[in-house]
Design brief:
Strand order of the largest sheet: 4-3-7-6
Radius of gyration: 18 Å
CATH architecture of the largest domain: Alpha-Beta Complex
Mean pLDDT: 78
Helix content: 25-40%
Order of helices and strands: EHEHEHHEHHHEHEEE
Number of domains: 2
Low-confidence stretches: 1-36, 38-84
CATH superfamily of the largest domain: Ribonuclease T2-like
Distance between the termini: 27 Å
Structural class: alpha+beta
Number of strands: 8
Shape: globular
Largest sheet: 4 strands, antiparallel
Length: 273
């Protein structure tokens, strides 16, 4: 694994194992953090970055304070967080579409298929997550790695093989579906959502409100009511993801507060490259 690079002054990199041992649970947004995908990390995939002043990602302030204290003292527990076994109950799916220009601008580990010049990649599938109405859904329910044949099929939707494996192990294993059925559902969910024309390959940065972005997706998808679409933003300034809430049969579902929402009045949508 490449050495982690944390962009904040005085930041340090800690492993996912250490993060889990102090309560880190795949947090999806940080108010001032830098995000990644695999393991919900800051810069280098597989690593969570935190500093003595704030954590890139944390489920609540208590965890951020604990991370800071442990980094200051130079000690991190190596205890593993117990994983759930087998399928778990959940309320709906969260189809998460990541805006590649934002991801590529904020990470040092760049996949050329997604971030290479001239690729002009916009939205990619981050994942299809089992979600709870009042909290994040189950994670890490055990299972074998995804076969290479499934990986090759999914690279048209999810940009890297490692992310495909991560999404299966972290989220797919908790659905009660086989890997083949889970990723078939991912493809069906993504194929059901039409990307608005203004977000297919913008050549200039545009500034819009989260409500405007959600309205554009609603207009392009007449089957998706407004309450089933959410946006997330990185640093409170840039479009990070569009999230679509779906029932288990992939019909629209009203997003709950656990789906998150960007609270900034306006955010910038970076152009494709």
């Amino acid at each position: 694994m490449r050495a982690a690079v944390c962009p904040q002054s005085g930041a340090a990199a800690i492993s996912k194992r250490a993060a889990r041992s102090i309560g880190y649970r795949d947090a999806r947004e940080g108010p001032r953090g830098f995000r990644g995908r695999e393991g919900r990390i800051c810069v280098s995939r597989g690593t969570l970055c935190a500093s003595g002043t704030h954590a890139c990602y944390h489920p609540d302030m208590r965890v951020a304070i604990l991370i800071a204290a442990l980094l200051f003292s130079g000690t991190l527990s190596g205890a593993r967080k117990k994983r759930a076994a087998g399928p778990q109950s959940f309320d709906y799916y969260l189809l998460t579409l990541s805006w590649a220009p934002d991801f590529c601008a904020q990470t040092n580990s760049k996949n050329p298929a997604e971030c290479g010049p001239g690729r002009k990649v916009g939205f990619v599938v981050h994942g299809l997550w089992p979600q709870g109405e009042t909290g994040r859904g189950p994670q890490n329910c055990g299972g074998s790695p995804v076969s290479q044949s499934i990986v090759q099929t999914m690279l048209k939707y999810i940009p890297t093989a490692s992310l495909i494996q991560h999404e299966w192990q972290t989220h797919g294993t908790c659905t009660g579906l086989s890997a083949a059925d889970y990723f078939a559902l991912v493809r069906k969910a993504r194929d059901s959502v039409k990307i608005p024309s203004e977000f297919q390959a913008p050549t200039r940065a545009v500034t819009e409100s989260p409500a405007q972005i959600e309205a554009a997706f609603g207009a392009a998808n007449s089957n998706l009511p407004k309450h089933s679409i959410r946006t997330s933003c990185s640093g409170g300034t840039l479009l990070q993801e569009v999230r679509v809430c779906l029932n288990k049969d992939l019909s629209p579902h009203a997003c709950s507060t656990s789906a998150g929402e960007c609270s900034a009045p306006t955010i910038q949508v970076l152009p494709v490259k």
